[in-house]
């Protein structure tokens, strides 16, 4: 069972991660379109590898998988929060997933699919430690994931 304190801690972690990711994502958005997917993959992996962020993200994922209440902060991140934060990072009003998808000229489900791809790696590599992805180099993972994420977010 997830305690209220664990949910509150997970919410704080997810909010801070969302803000930091939105800022980094906004910088990638303003870069060359042909590098957008690679930059998003690299930014995400940088957070996953960061010694300050990794234990916090592990805690948030463990809380999210322990109960419905624990899942709410992460569900909110992927369904609303990060898009609102992205809008602010882009120096606009907060965005919805539909509005961000419109800016990218893609369907909203493509944003979900790219997030699932990246967070699936987090689960396999850092939570479960499944080989060979757990010991693969960051460059191997970037090379592997970029074409898939590119297909989702660039077309």
Automatic annotation (TrEMBL):
Ranges where the Tetracyclin repressor-like C-terminal domain occurs: 34-153
Record-given protein name: Tetracyclin repressor-like C-terminal domain-containing protein
Pfam families named among the record's database cross-references: TetR_C_16 (PF17920)
